[in-house]
Design a protein that fits this description.
With 378 residues, the chain is α+β, with helices and mostly antiparallel strands. The chain folds into 2 domains: 197 residues, Ribosomal Protein S5, domain 2 (2-Layer Sandwich); 173 residues, GHMP kinase, C-terminal domain (Alpha-Beta Plaits, 2-Layer Sandwich), CATH 3.30.70. The protein is 41% helix and 24% strand. It contains 11 helices and 13 strands. Strands 5-4-6-3-1-13 form a 6-stranded mixed beta sheet, sandwiched between helices. The protein has a 4-stranded antiparallel beta sheet with strand order 10-11-9-12. The longest helix has 25 residues. The radius of gyration is 21 Å and the shape is globular. The N and C termini lie close together (12 Å). The protein binds alpha-D-galactopyranose (GLA). Alpha-D-galactopyranose binds next to helix 5.
Length: 378
């Protein structure tokens, strides 16, 4: 952390008091169901965002990033409310606002989670700030409450109607495990995910595309699910079975029906995936991952040609399963592959992208890593 504290000192003329870190995530399965009281199974990746923070004696909040050293954002704490100025700084301001912080702060961010890749760089940023403030200001807020506070920051300050998955996993993940999260109660179970022991690898394919639909498309899909929930007079998609949904099909528009079918079937797939992992049945896990993709592509319609190409090519190369992850319309896909097939899968996907005239994809692999943490800077 030498360079972060040195940059902090040269920028602000003092040492940081607290340094924190929070990871991005991939999601094994359980997509677009966190806002429907669903269950999800993400894990934290090794890439993380660091925050260095010190209290100020006045009411100014200053925010800078190691990635954009030329720009220092300054605002009075009294003006930190939804609708304030700021670009990416709003993710930081939103957390300050939702934690009801009243003192001035100097903040330096250093992010290494790829932005726009569907790996939750925004949640990593929010959570790095949240755990740092929790320690610095002695707020004593539980991880569950921090997840709700950071989600509120994104919903109400940034204006993105996301669910609670990304923030929860960034805060609560354990190394070596995927996190089974009940998105209603925020209770969790750590599910060991040791693919390497079984000669497997989880390949992350960043399509490097970010379609314009992202935010509007997300809100529109969520709206359809919510109107279906209302029409069917259930508390959430969690209360529905596929059979009950089919019986009520005529009460819904065809679109609401399809969105709801994705939600209900995806919740079941998460439970089935946990069962498969418990007996190390990776073939079954792979099939569930691929069915999740089909449902996101056909029923929820949040995939795109680049994601479909990555998934199909990985499957053609022998992947056990593959699917898009995150919000969709671009970002990343995952493929559960034999470790020995890593190189040939990467080459095949790169070739398929070139042939289709798509941007060159990027590849990552990451074992499940630890959630956020903060420490005083000595
Ligand atoms: C985005 C949101 C999450 C979740 C996923 C889809 O990452 O931030 O809350 O809804 O999309 O599963």
């Amino acid at each position: 952390m030498g360079s972060l504290s040195n940059t902090f000192e040269s920028l602000y003329g003092c040492k940081p008091q607290v340094i924190s870190e929070a990871p991005g995530r991939v999601n094994l399965i359980g997509e677009h169901i966190d806002f429907s009281d669903g269950f999800v199974l993400p894990y934290a990746i090794a890439d993380r965002t660091h925050a260095a923070i010190a209290r100020r004696s006045d009411s100014l909040v200053r925010i800078a990033s190691n990635q954009r050293k030329d720009h220092l954002f300054t605002i009075d704490i009294a003006d930190v409310k939804p609708g304030s100025a700021g670009g990416w700084e709003k993710y930081v301001l939103g957390v300050i606002w939702s934690l009801n912080v009243k003192s001035g702060l100097d903040i330096l961010i250093d992010g290494s989670v790829p932005v726009g890749a569907g790996l939750s760089s925004s949640a990593a940023l929010e959570c790095s700030v949240a755990v740092a403030l929790n320690l610095l200001l002695d707020l004593n807020i539980s991880l569950e409450e921090l997840a709700r506070a950071t989600q509120r920051a994104e919903n109400e300050y940034v204006g993105m109607p996301c669910g609670i998955m990304d923030q929860s996993v960034s805060l609560m993940a354990h190394a070596g495990s995927a996190l089974l999260l009940d998105c209603r109660t925020l209770s969790t179970q750590q599910i060991p995910f040791n693919v390497a022991e079984h000669g497997l690898e989880l390949l992350v394919i960043d399509t490097q595309v970010h379609h314009a639909l992202v935010d509007g498309g997300y809100a529109e899909r969520r709206g359809s699910v919510e109107s279906a929930t209302e029409k069917l007079a259930v508390r959430s998609m969690r209360e529905l079975s596929l059979e009950a949904l089919d019986n009520a099909r005529n009460d819904l528009t065809p679109e609401e029906y399809k969105r709801a079918r994705h939600s209900v079937s995806e919740i079941t797939r998460v439970h089935d995936a946990v069962e498969a992992l418990e007996v190390s049945d990776f073939k079954k896990l792979g099939e569930l991952i691929s069915s999740s993709h089909d449902s996101l592509r056909d029923d929820y319609t949040v995939s795109c040609p680049e994601l479909n190409c990555a998934v199909q090519t990985a499957l053609n190369e022998g992947a056990l399963g593959a699917r898009m992850i995150g919000g969709g319309f671009g970002g990343s896909a995952i493929a559960l592959i034999q470790a020995r097939d890593l190189e040939k899968t990467r080459i095949a996907i790169t070739d398929a992208f070139t042939e289709a005239g798509f941007k060159k994809p990027r590849f990552f692999t990451s074992l499940p890593s630890q959630g956020a943490s903060a420490r005083f800077f000595a």
